[in-house]
């Protein structure tokens, strides 16, 4: 089927698409992942930590952002390196598309190169060579971009001059092979305290872009009230007027309930599709959050890709899902899990109890969320890495006598299969229980698996396969074991594997997940 020639205004991540339409719902680009004015975030970035970046990403998604702006511009760091890291870290914890925000073309290009989706560039102005370089990058990587009406002459001095710069930017973009559907215009909001016509000028720009150019618009909302008291009132009134004038998006903090409530109400009053139900959901969310705040409990947001799932295991009478160690695994917080683990040890919880009562229940919950398609592969990987970090910290504290030494287990993903996340979790879990685990990796031939099992005198061989086409190689491993007289146990697992298949090929057992594998091995080795 031929590729459609119809161009769409849409941003995309690995897991979601956000469509941007002239008369669709007003949407917020979350602004919080920006170190400007945030001393704590600046310090974390200089220390190489991404914990706050991930936290901001998750929270903004819960609060209703449609897109997340990522800015790593601060002194004392390699901005390009940190931007690349931030893209990887944020895409691991949220499915929202990203807006790449930097003053340096090389930073934007590096982020676009590795971003697994269609990003938004923030921003491209009419400034000489920089404009041409960024337009080429937008074309090369298929990105949309925010057109900032600033030229080599500086800020436009009138509405007419601003509109002229916008037209020139559009013309330059079209000459570079881009289309109007690739552009969102920044209204360039000024401070009404300094320029009394600032709001009116912006409203005129929103109408001009909507009605004449048929191009969506965006703005930095809070600029309008700079230097004024009671800024929230000016911001919200301006927002309502702007939406009515055609404003499509705003770069703002979605954690401001008044802003998000006003946006939801404006969408409803303008009869945008689905806005009535969205308004009701929004108000119910805020009411519930306020009620829980009164009860001194953390808020429970509407269900979404990053909403905090609840666990059911208990420890010392308290819900495990409220424990920082458990949450660190659930959230994939490998940067903070050591400090959480140390605090738990300080409370008197033993290292084995932390593993058995917090880490293992947490990774089991992650597996359940993954199976339910509530979590996705990046979140699964991040959670496993967090758990492994904690295990490495706790292992030296666990006393094991020589008589407690457990058998050796060889694990591998079978030949032809390059998927190893499930196998890695199995290996991690078995090690946590004290087994000596030899992980041969993925795409391993049957002969290599049995050779290692024989030389290591392994009691068990664990085989993994994700696909129906590759799981048949499990049968080859069993045939090789018979041929080489390997008398240990062979167990299998993986997405396509079933208990009946295990029986069919003569395996000694089947496990549905990592936790079940530990139990299976224990039964087989009694």
Structure in words:
The structure is a single chain. The chain folds into three domains: 24-255, TIM Barrel; 314-397, Methyltransferase, Methionine Synthase (B12-binding Domains), Chain A, domain 1, CATH 1.10.1240; 402-524, Rossmann fold. Helix 9 runs antiparallel to helix 10 (275-294) and helix 11 (324-331) packs antiparallel against helix 12 (337-346). 48% of the residues lie in helices and 14% in strands. The chain is built from 20 helices and 17 strands. It has 526 residues and is α/β, with parallel strands linked by helices. The protein has helices spanning 39-46, 51-63, 79-93, 105-114, 128-141, 159-175, 198-213, 231-244, 257-269, 275-294, 324-331, 337-346, 351-371, 377-394, 421-432, 446-455, 468-471, 473-483, 499-505, 514-524; strands at residues 10-12, 17-19, 27-33, 67-71, 98-101, 120-126, 144-151, 183-186, 217-220, 249-252, 314-315, 318-319, 408-413, 436-439, 460-464, 489-493, 509-510. It has an eight-stranded parallel β-barrel with strand order 3-4-5-6-7-8-9-10, surrounded by six helices. Strands 14-13-15-16-17 form a five-stranded parallel sheet, sandwiched between helices.
Q: What's the number of helices? A: 20
Write down the domain tally: 3
Unreliable segments of 5+ consecutive residues:
300-318
Rg over CA atoms? 27 Å
The largest sheet has its strands arranged as 3-4-5-6-7-8-9-10
Based on the coordinates given, report the CATH architecture of the largest domain.
Alpha-Beta Barrel
Question: What is the distance, rounded to the nearest whole angstrom, between the alpha carbons of the first and last residues?
Answer: 58 Å
Shape: elongated
Main beta-sheet strand count, sense and barrel state:
8 strands, parallel, barrel
- Share of helical residues: 40-55%
The CATH H-level superfamily of the largest domain is Dihydropteroate synthase-like
Structural classification: alpha/beta
């Amino acid at each position: 089927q031929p590729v459609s020639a119809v161009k769409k205004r849409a941003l995309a991540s690995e897991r979601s698409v956000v469509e941007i339409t002239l008369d669709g719902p007003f949407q917020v680009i979350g602004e919080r992942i920006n170190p400007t004015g945030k001393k704590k975030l600046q310090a974390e970035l200089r220390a190489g930590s991404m914990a706050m970046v991930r936290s901001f990403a998750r929270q903004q998604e819960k609060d209703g952002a449609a897109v997340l702006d990522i800015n790593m511009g601060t002194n004392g760091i390699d901005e390009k390196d940190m931007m690349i890291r931030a893209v990887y870290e944020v895409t691991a914890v949220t499915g929202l598309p990203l807006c790449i925000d930097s003053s340096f073309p090389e930073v934007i290009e590096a982020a676009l190169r590795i971003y697994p989706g269609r990003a938004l560039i923030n921003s491209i102005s009419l400034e000489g060579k920089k404009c041409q370089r960024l337009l080429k990058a937008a074309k090369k990587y298929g990105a949309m971009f925010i057109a900032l009406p600033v030229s080599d002459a500086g800020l436009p001095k009138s509405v007419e001059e601003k509109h002229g710069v916008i037209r020139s930017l559009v013309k330059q973009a079209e000459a570079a092979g881009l289309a109007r559907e690739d552009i969102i215009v920044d209204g360039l909001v000024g401070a009404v305290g300094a320029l009394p016509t600032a709001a009116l000028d912006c409203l005129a720009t929103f109408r001009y872009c909507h009605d004449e150019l048929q191009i969506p618009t965006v703005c930095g909302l809070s600029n309008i009230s700079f230097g004024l008291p009671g800024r929230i009132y000016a911001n919200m009134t301006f927002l309502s007027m702007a939406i009515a004038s055609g404003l499509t998006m705003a770069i703002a903090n979605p954690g401001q309930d008044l802003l998000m409530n006003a946006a939801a109400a404006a969408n409803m009053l303008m009869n945008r599709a689905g806005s009535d139900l969205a308004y009701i959901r929004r108000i119910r969310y805020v009411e519930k959050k306020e009620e829980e705040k009164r009860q001194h409990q953390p808020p429970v947001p509407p269900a979404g890709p990053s909403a905090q799932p609840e666990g059911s295991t208990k420890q010392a009478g308290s819900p495990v899902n409220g424990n920082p160690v458990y949450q660190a695994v659930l959230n994939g917080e490998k940067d903070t899990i050591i400090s959480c683990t140390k605090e738990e040890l300080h409370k008197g919880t033993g290292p084995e109890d932390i593993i058995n009562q917090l880490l293992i229940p947490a990774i089991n919950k992650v597996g359940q969320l993954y199976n339910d398609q509530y979590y996705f592969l990046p979140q699964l990987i991040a959670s496993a890495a967090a758990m492994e970090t904690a295990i490495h910290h706790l292992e030296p504290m666990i006393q094991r006598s020589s008589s407690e030494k457990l058998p050796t287990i060889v694990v591998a993903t079978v030949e032809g299969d390059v998927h190893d996340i499930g196998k890695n979790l199995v290996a991690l879990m078995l090690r946590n229980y004290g087994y000596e685990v030899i992980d041969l990796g993925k795409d391993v031939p049957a002969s290599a698996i049995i050779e290692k099992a024989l030389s290591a005198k392994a009691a068990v061989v664990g085989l993994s396969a994700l696909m129906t086409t590759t799981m048949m190689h499990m049968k080859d491993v069993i045939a090789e074991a018979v041929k080489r007289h390997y008398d240990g146990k062979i167990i299998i697992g993986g997405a396509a594997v079933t208990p009946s298949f295990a029986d069919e090929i003569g395996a000694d057992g089947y496990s549905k997940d990592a936790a079940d594998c530990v139990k299976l091995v224990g039964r087989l080795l009694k």
